[in-house]
């Protein structure tokens, strides 16, 4: 068996693992990068890139086979940036095999033993398939198999009304598929109810059947695929399971590395270090918590400071945005209104501006949506945006909240007219308007100044 000594051993070549590997090796550390599957991980091959390409293709009017070919084009175009060849050129030792712990600071991958000063678990997550009666008898799809499809589904049944399920419902409806979404609770249940309602109402208006509060009881291959629910049976041609994700940790032999886990991921502290083995870090989906590609990349940056420079660094979540790419898009950063009221009580100010007050939205005829701004002591603590391209529109708020800016920074900005982005400035200005225009003190001061000005 070959033996390698390294500064950093990264397990997983998805967004987080690649961030750590590229940053560490370019700063002079010895890096071993291990990946058993495809370079680029879930996001490139089965997640963000293919799903957003499919959504765009549907809106662009492609047929289903053309759209799936376009998905592969997008993956192929981006793949070189995440490739084994690129990382080997950077100076990483790349091993394409399954990794497992041998002891607290040793990893076995194939016929190689890696002794490492620091180990990073960046193994991501996989689709969670609930233990539904009959599920193994049905050729169901997940995000890992969906994009290999070439034949247009006649009737796609989706189990799960979270972001993935809702996005794929919009996408497939745009190709003319009949679509039914089944959720045991409420669809988009983690989102602001006002914002979710706009997205879900649009979904229904486009012809998607949304069954909420419908518990899935069994599935069978009867007449294609039949899903038995607490609200009755649904029969379709294809079944997509989008019921959540689970961290990829089972093959790592974590107990041999003295690395405990919880139900959601590796048990880590605020600096993303294992609570019992300080040589081990976990990032992204493997660390539990939010499951976003951009969060994994952020985690990578956090632990590089700690691993390479010994600088204490903690991961935060208040400034991490999320987006459901529906029609319109729903973007959220920080606290929702309900969460903010619970945390800040009567010291919270909530500002809402509807998209119909935005001139660009009026000119384009896209006035369905709004921004909801939660403010505490002059600083934004949460923003909800539902609008076309809401994922782009929320970017200034990500900047503001990451840097703890006051709301005045947004109100002082000058945005080009007419743009949808002006709704951000309008919301910030609405926070200050009552303080200026409804203040007796301000009016008195202005009166005195006008009296004395020459």
TrEMBL record:
Keywords: Disulfide bond, FAD, Flavoprotein, NADP, Oxidoreductase, Redox-active center
The keyword ATP-binding appears for this protein: no
UniProt-listed SUPFAM superfamilies: FAD/NAD(P)-binding domain, FAD/NAD-linked reductases, dimerisation (C-terminal) domain
Stored InterPro entries: FAD/NAD-bd_sf (IPR036188), FAD/NAD-binding_dom (IPR023753), FAD/NAD-linked_Rdtase_dimer_sf (IPR016156), Pyr_nuc-diS_OxRdtase (IPR001100), Pyr_nucl-diS_OxRdtase_dimer (IPR004099), Pyr_OxRdtase_I_AS (IPR012999)
Gene3D superfamilies: 3.30.390.30, FAD/NAD(P)-binding domain
Cofactor(s) annotated in UniProt: FAD
Residues annotated as domain Pyridine nucleotide-disulphide oxidoreductase dimerisation: 320-427
Boundaries of every FAD/NAD(P)-binding domain copy: 7-300
Recorded family membership: Belongs to the class-I pyridine nucleotide-disulfide oxidoreductase family.
Identification of the protein by name: FAD-dependent oxidoreductase
């Amino acid at each position: 068996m070959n033996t390698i000594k390294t500064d950093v051993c990264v397990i997983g070549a998805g967004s987080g693992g690649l961030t750590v590997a590229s940053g560490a090796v370019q700063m002079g550390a010895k890096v071993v990068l291990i990946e058993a599957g495809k370079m680029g991980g879930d996001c490139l091959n089965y997640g963000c890139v293919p799903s957003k390409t499919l959504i765009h293709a549907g809106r662009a009017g492609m047929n289903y086979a053309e759209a799936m070919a376009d998905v592969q084009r997008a993956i192929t175009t981006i793949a070189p940036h995440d490739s084994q060849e690129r990382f080997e050129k950077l100076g990483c030792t790349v091993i394409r095999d399954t990794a497992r712990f041998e002891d607290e600071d040793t990893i076995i991958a194939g016929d190689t033993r890696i002794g490492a000063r620091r180990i990073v678990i960046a193994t991501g997550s996989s689709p969670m398939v609930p233990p539904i009666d009959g599920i193994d008898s049905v050729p169901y799809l997940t995000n890992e198999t969906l994009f290999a499809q070439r034949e247009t589904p006649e009737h796609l049944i989706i189990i799960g009304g979270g972001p993935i399920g809702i996005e794929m419902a919009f996408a497939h409806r745009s190709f003319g598929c009949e679509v039914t979404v089944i959720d045991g609770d409420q669809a988009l249940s983690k989102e602001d109810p006002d914002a979710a309602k706009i997205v879900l109402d649009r979904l229904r208006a486009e012809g998607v059947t949304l069954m909420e509060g419908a518990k899935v009881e069994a599935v069978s291959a009867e007449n294609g695929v039949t899903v038995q629910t607490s609200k009755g049976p649904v029969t379709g041609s294809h079944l997509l399971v989008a019921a959540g994700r689970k961290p990829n940790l089972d093959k790592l032999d974590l107990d041999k590395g003295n690395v405990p886990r919880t139900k959601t991921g590796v048990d880590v502290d605020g600096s993303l270090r294992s609570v019992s083995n300080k040589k081990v870090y976990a990032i992204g989906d493997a660390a539990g918590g939010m499951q976003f590609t951009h969060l994994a990349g952020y985690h990578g940056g956090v632990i590089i400071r700690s691993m390479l420079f010994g600088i204490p660094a903690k991961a935060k979540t208040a400034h991490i945005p999320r987006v459901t790419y529906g029609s319109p898009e729903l973007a959220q950063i920080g606290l929702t209104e309900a969460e903010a009221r619970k945390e800040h009580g009567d010291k919270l100010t909530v500002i809402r501006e509807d998209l119909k007050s935005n001139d660009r939205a009026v000119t384009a005829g896209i006035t369905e949506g709004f921004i909801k701004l939660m403010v505490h002591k002059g600083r934004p603590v949460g923003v909800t945006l539902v609008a076309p391209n809401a994922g782009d529109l929320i970017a200034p708020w990500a900047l503001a909240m990451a840097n703890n800016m006051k709301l005045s920074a947004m109100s002082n900005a000058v945005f080009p007219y007419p743009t949808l982005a002006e709704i951000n400035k309008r919301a910030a200005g609405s926070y200050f308007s009552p303080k200026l225009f409804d203040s007796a003190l301000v009016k008195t001061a202005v009166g005195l100044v006008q009296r004395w000005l020459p």
